[in-house]
């Protein structure tokens, strides 16, 4: 499982966004307002490029706010093309594009955006590309992960869950052994009970689903088919672990935000600024802005 595959699986399963959907409304509203603010400064017939777009969360918001605008979203993953979306003729999502090597001509875009995406790439390679494709007077606006944010803290807790699940002879190992006939149902139930008794946070999304899956596996006799089902489920859990590890690594602390700004100024961007985004006194991310 490489970094890209984990996102391929995620976007191909039809998710529309990655960091906001499992959070709360106030967060969605704050983020939406940041894009509304960006749209206010756009006049007519502009072209916007959204980096690391996923399934087009930002293009979908912007296309409803700006008329006469073409929005291209690019992502390294095999993102799922939009269909039947309102305004989708204004949006083009292009998969398999690395933002460190953008296939667009110089001085093309009026605005380059990214929502929890730009920071996943090496900024030393990606920011010069942003400089290249922006028109003079055009600007960038990125919402990036903050290392103290609610999203990152929640993800760090999930990483601990994964660590416990993937322990040798832990719950995942024992499910796999059971489906091969190498562990009994009572052994599997015992491991499940030990896992449930562990004094750490367990999310519904990960532990909750897996605990339910144990009941399903136990209701079936070991077989090749059951083992294949377990392998598929384990691959999906690995993909989720990889995605969350990438999110944690991508997050920026104070020093990272300073280096980002220094790099942007060195490249020639003007009005470079960073601001911590907060919702209900919780840190949510960074807003990084600048002008070509
Ligand atoms: C947290 S998701 C954000 C997706 C979207 N912006 C959203 O808010 O729903 C991060 C995305 O960054 C993409 N990504 C990571 N590294 C990349 C790179 N070097 N070039 C292009 N996309 C990249 C991943 O494939 C993933 O879709």
Task: Explain how this protein is built.
Helix 6 runs antiparallel to helix 7. The protein has a 7-stranded mixed β-sheet with strand order 3-2-1-4-5-7-6, sandwiched between helices. The mean pLDDT is 91. The longest helix has 27 residues, at 224-250. It has 10 helices and 7 strands. By secondary structure, it is of the alpha/beta class. It has helices spanning 3-12, 25-40, 57-65, 123-133, 150-165, 171-180, 185-197, 204-218, 224-250, 254-267, and strands at residues 47-51, 70-74, 91-94, 109-115, 134-144, 270-279, 282-291. The chain has 2 domains: 3-149 and 251-291, Vaccinia Virus protein VP39 (Rossmann fold); 151-247, no CATH class. Helices cover 48% and strands 18% of the residues.
Sum up the structure in keywords.
292 residues, alpha/beta, Rossmann fold, 2 domains, seven-stranded mixed sheet, 10 helices, 48% helix, elongated, binds S-adenosylmethionine
Summarize the structure.
The protein is an alpha/beta fold.
Please render the helix and strand layout as text:
Blueprint: H1 3-12, H2 25-40, E1 47-51, H3 57-65, E2 70-74, E3 91-94, E4 109-115, H4 123-133, E5 134-144, H5 150-165, H6 171-180, H7 185-197, H8 204-218, H9 224-250, H10 254-267, E6 270-279, E7 282-291
Helix pairs in contact: 1-9, 2-3, 4-10, 5-9, 6-7, 6-9
This protein binds S-adenosylmethionine.
S-adenosylmethionine binds next to helix 3.
